[in-house]
Amino acid sequence: MSHAVDPEEVSDHEFGTDEVTAAAYRRFDCTVADPAALAEAAEAARTAVEAGECVVLPTDTVYGIGADAFSADAVQGLLDAKMRGRDMPPPVLIADASLIRALATDVPDAARDLLARHWPGPLTVICKIQPSLRMDLGDTEGTIALRVPDHEVTREVLRRTGPMAVSSANISGKPAALSCDEAVDQLGDRVSVYLDGGPVAGSGGAASTIVDFTQREEGDLLRRGVLGLEVLRETLPDLVDLTEPEQAASDRPVDPGEAGDPVPVPDTSSPEPLGSGRPDQDTSDAPDRHGAHALGPDGGPGEDRGPDAGPAEPDAAVGADEGPHPAPGG
Questions:
Q1: Residue 146 scores a pLDDT above 90
Q2: Are 215 and 128 in contact (CB under 8 A)?
Q3: How far is Cα of residue 309 from the mean position of the Cα atoms in its chain?
Q4: Residue 93 and residue 166 in contact, taking contact as beta carbons nearer than 8 Å
Q5: Which one of 37, 173, 180, 323 is at 20 to 30 Å from 283 when CA atoms are compared?
Q6: What are the CA-CA distances from residue 312 to residues 5, 41, 127, 165, 326 (Å)?
Q7: How confident is the model at residue 206 (pLDDT cuts 50, 70, 90)?
């Protein structure tokens, strides 16, 4: 039995006709306690992502619009859907922290400690991207913004699709969607599949916090979000705060790119070249499904934590919508 919501009908009566047409997207109710229904929704999302299409999914901060992070065309489709440019690359959401080793390089111990405590969760970290990755997320300056969202539906999708570029599910410059209805209202049939996880009010609409580890091992706080400075300094006592003093983490983000989008893109003097190659999703370090606790001994956070954020998106994603990767929604 299918639990997909019936295609929404759009009446042309207001345009002078009585013709009724079906919406071009599929919407799934993921609030039901039915494993079969949730599996159907996750598989529909996987199929759409594999086809290079965009999907909308809930996170622990805001709703995010996601696409295959390894497909330049799919990422461009995401940016086009949001009406944003390549100067605001989306963050990348992953299912488990162990994946970070395949996506980022030179991850300091301080970052590992922070991820072990806050992944899965509303934390986006910016690291140097693995030189061999075949990823074109936009103008990232050799960096990548990563997040592991604390939402089981979305993490199940990520386990099936692998890393996804995710930004907040909204038109650039408009408020991030906190419900599936809000996402549909803004993005409509630019998206193929909508996963309705109900309202995401756990963060009060605040975006993920963004910490950059590309400039100094102690980390730079680029955006305050759900996690405050005091909380971060419990793990990173020498964290440098680069945010504006008056920045309010409780304000509902305007296009936070989910994962912390947009993520500001760090100014790296010598961006690492993007080569080719896609990390195997089924490595020997298989994620233990416990998120942040699956960190590896090599110093790299087990993997990713998000969406909205992208190489410095936000966004994880879901992030806000201004600034170069700086950086997912959302």
A1: yes
A2: no
A3: 5
A4: yes
A5: 37
A6: 35, 29, 8, 12, 4
A7: confident
Q: C-alpha angle with apex 163: 7 to 144, nearest 5 degrees?
A: 125
**Angle in degrees, CA 224, 136, 165, rounded to 5:** 50
Q: Residue 217's Cα: distance from chain center in Å? A: 23
Enter the tokens of residue 231. 């909380």
**The two structure tokens encoding residue 63:** 């709703």
Comparing 309 with 44, which gets the higher pLDDT? 44
Percent of the chain having pLDDT more than 90? 63
Count of CB atoms situated within 10 Å of the CB of 227: 23
Q: Are 98 and 303 in contact (CB under 8 A)?
A: yes
166 vs 157: CA distance, rounded Å: 12
How far apart (Å, rounded) are the C-alpha atoms in residues 64 and 77?
14
DSSP E strands in the chain: the ranges are 4-5, 9-11, 20-22, 26-29, 55-57, 64-68, 92-93, 104-105, 123-129, 143-147, 164-168, 193-196, 209-212, 220-223, 240-241
Q: What is the DSSP string of 158-174?
A: HHHH-SEEEEESS-TTS
**Cα 235 versus chain centre, distance:** 23
Strand 26-29 and strand 4-5: the pairing is antiparallel
